[in-house]
Design a protein that fits this description.
With 443 residues, the protein is an alpha+beta fold. It has three domains: 12-198, no CATH class; 221-279, Signal transduction histidine kinase, dimerisation/phosphotransfer (DHp) domain (Helix Hairpins, Orthogonal Bundle), CATH 1.10.287; 282-437, Histidine kinase-like ATPase, C-terminal domain (Heat Shock Protein 90, 2-Layer Sandwich), CATH 3.30.565. Helices cover 63% and strands 10% of the residues. The protein is built from 14 helices and seven strands. The strands form two sheets. A five-stranded mixed β-sheet has the order 2-4-5-7-6, covered by helices on one side. A hairpin with a 2-residue loop joins strand 6 (409-416) and strand 7. Helix 6 (119-128) packs parallel to helix 8 (161-220). It is elongated, with a radius of gyration of 34 Å.
């Protein structure tokens, strides 16, 4: 399989779409693990740490169920932005702190194992918020530690200075951990923003180079265009010169006019394709269902097939929405399918299929015809190169330009007898309305 020109490149959209869902999912899993360990400790080591009260067990089990619900909610969302993650993180962190307070209230031991839960809201705040909110969370967590110490000493027995020292060391560890994580996250987001900017510059440079390459190609093939125009123009002049001869029979005169009209139509097609290829792509993105797009291409292809025994099959993800220029992509795919029909000839199969991931929309057009000969395979995407007598040689070049305008590419992925496949990848196909907020901090 031929490598895609952009297949190994990091997409700008990938950098901008920082996946907060994975981050929040990780916090949920860590919380579930911690709660599970605490429930296990109460069961296995009850004789050592004491029998927990029913209220403690109910609180742990209830929080465990709530985290399962939160985990399910996160997995049900296709994408979690930073704003959504913050909206989820605030009640989650407050819930942790409130849970530890309640567990301390119902606890009768002088060394509470529940304080390990305080690390989770502190880390969550450091990852999601700025220094102000992170510091407030550390203060709240520290207050929870000293509340437990005050509550225990007031109800059961006075704690020793060592116990208060241990509480102070715990709050210090929480504070240092929070500042360190906040600083590392800030550095990572700064680098992320710099990478986004660099990729934007790289994309602009790539587009400029592509346009310059296109102009260079136009210059290289200007002589070919002149040749293509000169031939039909010569035939038009010759036909008209014959037609205006008063000695020519009416039937022959009509034939000459028909030839002139046909050649003029050919010239119009050639100049239209040439102008469309030379004009830089101006994408008009709009949401479109992928299965409907491929269905439209399939219907138009069937019209070309007519009564020939050629099987047309289409498969695409149902209700998958893409933010693309549907008109350009449809024209590019139709060019591929019509070429496939011509390659099949009298009978065979043409398959149109699509699949989507977070970063790539991949569409393949496959036919059961003969493989493309090596000399043609090397040049089929060159402008004005064609093996068809009436072709302009711009169809595949324009289809490739459409794919590249969407951040992807078009290439021949398979080329063997009975299986010739053109693969189009569109990378800028998702509707990301939010720009990266890596440098946003609470003030």
């Amino acid at each position: 399989m031929q490598a895609n020109a952009t297949g190994d490149a990091v997409s700008l959209r990938d950098v901008q779409s920082y996946d907060y869902r994975k981050q929040q999912t990780a916090f949920c899993i860590v919380t579930l693990f911690a709660l599970g360990i605490l429930l296990l400790l109460h069961t296995v080591f009850a004789s050592v740490i004491g029998e927990p009260s029913l209220a403690v067990l109910v609180l742990l089990a209830l929080n465990f169920l709530l985290r399962l619900v939160e985990l399910g909610w996160l997995q049900s969302r296709e994408r979690v932005t930073r704003k959504i993650a913050q909206m989820d993180g605030i009640p989650s962190s407050m819930g942790h702190l409130f849970l530890v307070i309640l567990l301390a209230w119902f606890s009768t031991t002088d060394h509470s194992p529940y304080q390990v839960l305080l690390a989770i809201p502190v880390l969550q705040a450091a990852c999601l918020f700025g220094l102000l909110v992170t510091s407030a969370t550390v203060v709240a967590a520290s207050g929870t530690v000293f509340f437990w110490m005050y509550h225990y000493s007031a109800l059961y027995q006075q704690l020793s200075p060592i116990d208060y020292l241990e509480g102070g060391m715990l709050t210090l560890v929480l504070a240092l951990t929070a500042v360190l994580i906040w600083f590392l996250v800030r550095v990572l987001r700064t680098h992320e923003a710099a990478l986004s900017s660099a990729l934007a510059d790289l994309g602009a440079t790539r587009l400029q180079l592509a346009n310059e390459e296109k102009l260079a190609a136009i210059g290289r093939f200007a002589s070919g265009i002149a040749h293509e125009i000169r031939n039909p123009l010569a035939m038009i002049l010759s036909a008209l010169a014959t037609a205006i001869d008063p000695e020519v029979e009416p039937q022959e005169r009509g034939e000459m006019f028909a030839i002139a009209r046909h050649q003029a139509s050919r010239l119009e097609t050639l100049t239209t394709d040439f102008l469309q290829y030379a004009r830089p792509a101006d994408l008009k993105r709009a949401p479109i269902l992928v299965d409907e797009l491929l269905g439209s291409v399939e219907s138009l292809t069937r019209l070309r097939v007519g009564e020939r025994p050629i099987e047309i099959a289409c498969s695409a993800p149902v209700e998958q929405v893409a933010m693309i220029d549907g008109s350009l992509v449809e024209a590019a795919l139709l060019n591929l399918t019509l070429n496939a029909v011509d390659a099949v000839g009298g009978a065979g199969k043409v398959l149109i299929r699509a699949d989507a991931s977070d970063s790539v929309l991949r569409i393949e057009v496959e036919n059961s015809g003969e493989p493309i000969a090596a000399p043609h395979l090397e040049r089929i995407f060159e402008p004005f190169y064609t093996t068809k007598p009436a072709g302009t040689g711009l169809g595949l070049a324009m289809a490739k330009a459409t794919a590249q305008a969407h951040g992807g590419d078009l290439w021949v992925s398979q080329n063997r007898k009975g299986r010739v496949t053109f693969t189009m990848e569109l990378r800028d196909w998702r509707d990301f309305k939010e720009m990266p907020d890596g440098q946003n901090t609470d003030r």
